[in-house]
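Here is my example:
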Amino acid sequence: MKKKAKTTIRDTNFVPERIDMTPKVPMPRTEWIKNKKLDLPYGTDPLQTLDLYYPKETKEKYPLVILVHGGGFTHCDKRDFHLYPGFFTLDRGFALASVNYRLAPKDPYPAAVEDVKDAVAYLRGNAAELNLDSGNFFLYGTSAGGNLVACAGLDGGATAGGKRDYHVNAVADLCGLINFNTFIKQPANPLYKLVLYYLIARNGYIKARGRERARQLLEASADSRISSAVNPPAFYIQHGDLDPAVNVRQSISFYEKLKDAGIADGKLKLHIMKGVYHAGAGPEYLERENVDCICDFFIEHMI
């Protein structure tokens, strides 16, 4: 059998007007989006900002997808390649918020998690002014962003109706690093594993040492929040079975734990993509058909 040729992010079936192919890693273009609000501050730090994009269709209020980029908790940005798949949510009638958050090592755990929560709370608190449907908010995160949206989503149910309300209807966790303790132990490409270990552990996302470090490693693991979750959202969990950076077992285990906690099948979907590597290594996570599956799931969980 002929071995499948390995593809790169540049092999994505990009919509030409939405992408700049000049850089080595293609960069999304936003000129085609006429209605947008850029660099809205949800906090006082320069990284505590978000961009808000609206679909072409004019409505009184829009359901909202809140996109949280990956990058090992240490780098990447709300306007880099992670933004591109969010464009397809606009085509489906959602508004799109792309969020920046504080990064390690300058700002270690729990800064990024708290920033995602604050961003959702900001959007909820200003929903009327921003023409957003606060009854239909959805989180979407990839890799490190998958961890952050899973944490915020599980914690959010308990805040519904409160002063800092960041609850959402559903979460899309794509190739997320869910459990820090098992992550280091699971099989992965040694180079990726070493790089991610230095980015996440040695470079200070979990900066504490000793017993406090052990506590933070557990607390930063999204699956540690399942038992305390109140009215948890629906979860769409997606992972490539050949992921060399974050082992697919992270998502399988997360799905099983959510199911064991009583989240019904209708609110829980596990999508294992065959022959797919980590996000950013190939085109799969960026293609329209992949995002459409997630949008369909979100629409199923609209109020």
Observations:
- Strands lie at 19-20, 27-28, 36-41, 49-53, 62-68, 95-99, 132-142, 170-174, 234-240, 268-273.
- The chain has a mean pLDDT of 93.
